[in-house]
């Protein structure tokens, strides 16, 4: 039920014909009430087209991703082992790392793979090495090897099949890991996460569960032989639902690692982290997009519950190696209208709610969540704001990247937040945010700083009321009497190059001056100038309006 508003507030906030009435919401933050570490689960990104890594815009975006976070940024990409000429397409890349000569002997080529990983090193980001997909010379059903996107129902590609020789697969992985150790140093590559394959429960793997388990055994053995301290894991399955195929696959894989011996070594199977994916499910409802946040959080809860069935694994790091509003980054909203949320403020506000929900589920299930990896990067040589799930378009940042910049300004412990505008987590999991707006916050506190991220979110991409935030932050350190406040904002007029682009007339060939303006509009922007605020008995009180789908970060330092 939507909260009522008093006549006094109605008059105070003002009203004009056709205007939305602002809803008063009280948000209280207690800096002394820690609820656990603020793990930087936001600092993970990925994409299908690994060859975009070396493009001009790809390299620039990698540097931006490094700069938005004080902790290492991890990058995951598909097709690192696929055969081909290294030219990217939508949902396709290749490195040609493995071929065979006329006598059937392995031939390794590092040129393209080195270009990708050298770009990561130059940007000072950390690879999450996804070991996939099957080289043509190793595939047990090689032809047709690659079918350009979009594929048709029934199309099957050769890179998705098991190896015809598992020993050679294991040797390929060993050679890749040994080469990386030699090129970048054993200490460096030991800090990387090495993940075996991607979504083996669907069309990315045309083998059985048992064949995937064997693929994992040989890959893990190959990595460990080259880099004994490497962190190896999987299975990177799709979002689990109770009693569904994906859930059964994840559980069977964990059972294999817990009970079986490695088919590669005959010894215990190494498992240093567990990965699976969680996705929402947006739809078109009448004439607008309606997000499916409930599905993403329900999948996380199901996966965490499965991990808890294995006491020996319950403290292992969990990497949600894709955590997104839906599944296909390369499906533009021009062709797939339900993806129209991607250019504007609905994407960052959704991600804010999802992050808080994932932290809450981690606490509920007592698991070790370290990543909610955003499967979004950039798409080279595509129209401006074409509605791909991307962080930037032709070198212009989209609003969503500013959510990650905000998250990068948060550190320390998560602290208690109470909001009378929040939708309870279990209600979101059950039915999404379809009735009242979710007006809530996530807050952190460290030695000399604190931050409060606030949002006004609704699943439906339709106009709605602003929230009049009455923010109270209490229990600053007793020796502190004055703090510097910075208030960052994502909305239609802040940190939003998409709005600026539309105001220009949506140019596909912007002039130099327009392009510079778009780049400036895409940066994280302040809602007001920084200012000093005096504390009253260790407390700060602020009032401001937050539009629907808007996100604020209020940061204090002293």
From TrEMBL:
Alphabetical keyword list: Glycosidase, Hydrolase, Signal
PROSITE patterns: PROKAR_LIPOPROTEIN
Record-annotated active site: 199
Biological processes, Gene Ontology terms: carbohydrate metabolic process
UniProt xrefs under InterPro entries: GH, GH39_cat, Glyco_hydro_39, Glycosyl_Hydrolase_39
Keyword Transcription regulation applies: no
Entry GO MF terms: hydrolase activity, hydrolyzing O-glycosyl compounds
Key word Hydrolase present: yes
Signal peptide boundaries: 1-21
Domain Glycosyl hydrolases family 39 N-terminal catalytic per the UniProt entry, residue ranges: 96-520
Family of the protein in this entry: Belongs to the glycosyl hydrolase 39 family.
Record's protein name: Beta-xylosidase
Native source organism of the sequence: Alloacidobacterium dinghuense
């Amino acid at each position: 039920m939507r909260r009522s508003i008093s006549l006094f507030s109605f008059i105070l906030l003002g009203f004009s014909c056709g205007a939305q009435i602002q809803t008063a919401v009280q948000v209280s933050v207690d800096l002394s009430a820690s609820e656990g570490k603020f793990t930087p689960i936001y600092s993970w990104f990925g994409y299908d087209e690994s060859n975009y890594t070396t493009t001009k815009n790809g390299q620039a975006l990698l540097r931006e991703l490094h700069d938005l976070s004080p902790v290492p940024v991890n990058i995951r990409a598909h097709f690192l082992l696929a055969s081909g000429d290294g030219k990217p397409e939508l949902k396709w890349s290749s490195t040609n790392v493995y071929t065979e000569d006329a006598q059937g002997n392995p031939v390794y080529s590092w040129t393209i793979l080195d270009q990708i990983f050298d770009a990561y090193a130059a940007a000072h980001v950390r690879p999450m090495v996804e070991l996939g997909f099957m080289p043509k010379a190793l595939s047990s059903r090689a032809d047709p090897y690659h079918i350009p996107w979009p594929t048709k129902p029934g199309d099957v590609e050769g890179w998705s099949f098991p190896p015809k020789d598992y020993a050679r697969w294991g040797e390929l992985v060993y050679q890749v890991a040994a080469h990386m150790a030699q090129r970048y140093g054993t200490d460096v590559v030991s800090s990387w996460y090495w993940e075996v394959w991607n979504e083996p429960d669907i069309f990315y793997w045309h083998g059985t569960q048992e064949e995937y388990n064997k693929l994992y055994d040989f890959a893990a053995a190959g990595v460990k032989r080259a880099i004994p301290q490497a962190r190896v894991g999987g299975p990177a399955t799709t979002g689990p639902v109770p009693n569904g195929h994906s859930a059964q696959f994840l559980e069977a894989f964990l059972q294999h690692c817990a009970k079986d011996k490695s088919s590669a070594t005959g010894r215990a199977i190494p498992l240093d982290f567990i990965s699976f994916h969680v996705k929402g499910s947006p739809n078109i409802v009448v004439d607008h997009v309606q997000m499916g946040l409930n599905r993403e959080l329900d999948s996380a809860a199901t996966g965490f519950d499965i991990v808890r069935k294995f006491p020996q694994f319950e403290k292992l790091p969990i990497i949600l190696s894709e955590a997104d509003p839906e599944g296909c980054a390369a499906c533009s909203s021009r062709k797939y209208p339900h993806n129209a949320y991607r250019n504007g403020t609905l994407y960052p506000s959704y991600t804010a709610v999802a992050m808080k929900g994932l932290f809450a589920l981690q606490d509920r299930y007592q698991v070790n969540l370290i990543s909610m990896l955003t499967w979004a990067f950039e798409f080279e040589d595509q129209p401006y704001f074409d509605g791909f799930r991307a962080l930037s378009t032709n070198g212009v940042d989209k609003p969503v990247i500013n959510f990650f910049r905000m998250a990068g300004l948060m550190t320390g412990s998560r602290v208690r937040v109470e909001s009378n505008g929040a939708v309870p987590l279990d209600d979101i999991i059950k039915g999404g945010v379809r009735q009242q707006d979710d007006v809530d916050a996530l807050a952190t506190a460290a030695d000399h700083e604190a931050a409060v991220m606030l949002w006004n979110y609704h699943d439906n991409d339709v106009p709605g009321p602003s929230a009049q935030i009455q923010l109270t932050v209490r229990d600053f350190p007793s020796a502190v009497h004055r703090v510097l406040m910075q208030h960052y904002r994502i909305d239609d007029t802040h940190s939003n190059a998409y709005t600026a682009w539309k105001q220009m007339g949506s140019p596909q060939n912007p002039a130099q001056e327009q392009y510079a303006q778009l780049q400036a509009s895409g940066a994280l922007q302040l809602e007001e100038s920084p200012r000093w605020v005096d504390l009253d008995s260790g407390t700060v009180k602020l009032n401001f309006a937050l539009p629907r789908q808007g996100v604020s970060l209020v940061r204090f330092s002293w």
